[in-house]
């Protein structure tokens, strides 16, 4: 990714208390001098979606155009394609079982190891594919119409989601 250096992993974990969990993640980030962003993989169109959100958020943050008070929230705003923090929060962790992308920006020695006390890193990316149920959920979340899909084709659905991420810059 141009401009922003991040390590991106996939992980699974269970959250009982969201606030406590995020406080523990924040402590790791602070101790390691980095930013850690956790994305709900079920609401994203794969790793490219994470990379696009990180890139756009970094640009906004570096240029002083960010609308949130943290890089982590700015990234979730782009992931969600919205300026509404209360909506963007649902693109992060939630109570219960989580399948997530974990971004560490910039990479920091020891951060992944410390996070391993909170999450289980996995080598596979189960959310990379977009099955029909996920496609329907993403179409609803990002306001993608059947007409749009008909124009570009099913195989380019992911590009429609990434377009929504990029359009957030225009709507600011």
Compose a concise summary of this entry.
With 172 residues, the chain is an alpha+beta fold.
Describe the structure.
The protein has 172 residues and is an alpha+beta fold. The chain has one domain (7-171): CGI121/TPRKB (PF0523-like, 2-Layer Sandwich). The protein is built from eight helices and four strands; from the N terminus they run βαβαααβαβααα. The protein has a four-stranded antiparallel sheet with strand order 2-3-1-4. The longest helix has 17 residues, at 47-63. It is globular and about 50 Å long. The protein starts with 6 loop residues before the first strand and ends with a helix. The model has no long low-confidence stretch (mean pLDDT 92). This is KEOPS complex subunit Cgi121.
């Amino acid at each position: 990714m141009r401009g922003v250096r991040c390590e991106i992993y996939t992980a699974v974990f269970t959250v009982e208390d969201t606030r406590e969990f995020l406080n523990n993640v924040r402590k790791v980030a602070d101790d390691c001098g980095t930013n850690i962003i956790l994305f709900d993989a079920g609401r994203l169109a794969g790793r490219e979606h994470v990379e696009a959100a990180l890139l756009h958020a970094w640009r906004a943050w570096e240029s002083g155009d960010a609308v949130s008070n943290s890089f982590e929230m700015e990234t979730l705003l782009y992931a969600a394609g919205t300026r509404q923090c209360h909506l963007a929060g649902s693109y992060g962790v939630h109570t219960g079982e989580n399948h997530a992308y974990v971004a560490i920006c910039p990479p920091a020695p020891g951060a992944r190891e410390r996070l391993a006390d909170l999450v289980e890193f996995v080598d596979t990316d189960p959310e990379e594919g977009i099955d029909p149920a996920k496609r329907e959920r993403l179409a609803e979340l990002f306001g993608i119409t059947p007409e749009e899909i008909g124009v570009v084709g099913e195989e380019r659905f992911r590009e429609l989601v990434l377009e929504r991420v990029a359009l957030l810059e225009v709507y600011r």
